[in-house]
Specification:
- The model has no long low-confidence stretch (mean pLDDT 84).
- It is elongated and about 60 Å long.
- Helix 1 packs parallel to helix 3.
- It is mainly alpha-helical.
- Helix content is 80%, strand content 0%.
- The N and C termini lie far apart (61 Å).
Length: 100
């Protein structure tokens, strides 16, 4: 059961990070925003399951949760760092169009 909780927590974190991803808008009328509420339930489950594994899990389960969480965060930051310049450029070009 604890292995399922560990894997479920990892999947929940990946889901929250996926939902919190920032992607460039296709046009100037679409605002750039992160929908915090959509990823919040998955993140809350991740935190609760992580606390349970930290308190009750074996060393292997805690280590698996730590390593996979760190990996997910690294991938999230890498994807965010690639999409953020595109988002910024879109906002600049939309602001320039608004001034014309």
């Amino acid at each position: 059961m604890k292995w399922l909780v560990t894997i479920g927590a990892t999947i929940a974190l990946a889901t929250a990070m996926l939902l919190w991803g920032l992607a460039p808008a296709s046009e100037c009328s679409t605002p750039q925003e992160i929908h915090w509420w959509t990823g919040l339930p998955a993140f809350v489950f991740y935190v609760a399951a992580g606390c349970y594994i930290a308190a009750q899990g074996t060393l292997a389960q805690r280590l698996l949760l730590f390593i996979t969480s760190a990996g997910i965060i690294v991938v999230y930051v890498a994807i965010l760092s690639q999409s953020l310049p595109i988002v910024i450029q879109t906002e600049i070009s939309c602001a320039a169009q608004g001034l014309r």
